[in-house]
Amino acid sequence: MAQIEQTPVAENGGEDGRRAAQTELRQMRDTVSALRDSLEQLRLEKDRSVQAVTAEANSENRHLKTTIGELRDTLDALHAENDENVQAAVADASGEILQLKAAINALRDELEQMRHDGAEAVQASVAEANDQIGQLKGTIGALRDEIERGTIAHDDAVQRLRRDFRDESNQQQQTIAILRAQLETHDAE
After folding, report:
1. What's the whole-model pTM score?
2. Distance of alpha carbon 59 from alpha carbon 140, whole angstroms
């Protein structure tokens, strides 16, 4: 910035005063012009600085927008991948659940079949046992009847033998009595 020099005004007035005033005016105009030039230079430098800062900010904004766009794309890709992974996991779990349900149903059917087969086997065994019991009861009844008939026959045979023995014994006693009587009559004669 140019400094304004103060020139003393001559006391004798006239021409020297005018020249001094014109010189001072010229100096002031030069100073104003220099100040304008300095101000214009400062404004240009400020504009350049603002433009540089603006350009840098715009560049940084573009860079940040690009980075944000890339990050958004990456995030969207991660979301999509995550969604795919979740859907795949759900599909796998659903498939596994269906397989487990099928296995459970198959095992339930097998268990029911085993129960049914077991019940049939028990019923068949019970029926067979009942048949055998019936046959054994029949056999026991027949044997009992046979034993009773044998006992009756035995009792009849024993009674017949006793009767025959008694009859024979009576006959022998009668024969003995007759022979004794004959002997006595023969001895008496």
Report:
1. 0.38
2. 116
Cα–Cα nearest to 71, from 56, 63, 86:
63
Cα gap 31→21, rounded to integer Å:
15
Q: What is the DSSP secondary structure assignment for residue 12, as one 8-state letter?
A: T
Task: State the virtual CA torsion across 86, 90, 96, 98 in degrees, nearest 10.
Answer: -170
Question: Rounded to whole angstroms, how far apart are CA atoms 184 and 176?
Answer: 12
Q: How far is CA 150 from CA 1, 84, 141, 154, 155, in A?
A: 163, 95, 14, 6, 8
pLDDT tens for 81-91 read: 988 988 988 88
Tokens representing 2 are 């140019």
Determine the Cα–Cα distance for residues 38 and 46; give it in Å rounded to an integer.
Answer: 12
| Torsion angle defined by CA atoms of residues 57, 61, 67 and 69, in that order, rounded to the nearest 10 degrees | -170
- Per-residue DSSP letters for 34-72? HHHHHHHHHHHHHHHHHHHHHHHHHHHHHHHHHHHHHHH
CB 17 within 8 A of CB 10: yes
Question: What angle is formed at CA 148 by the lines to CA 146 and CA 149, rounded to 5 degrees?
Answer: 60
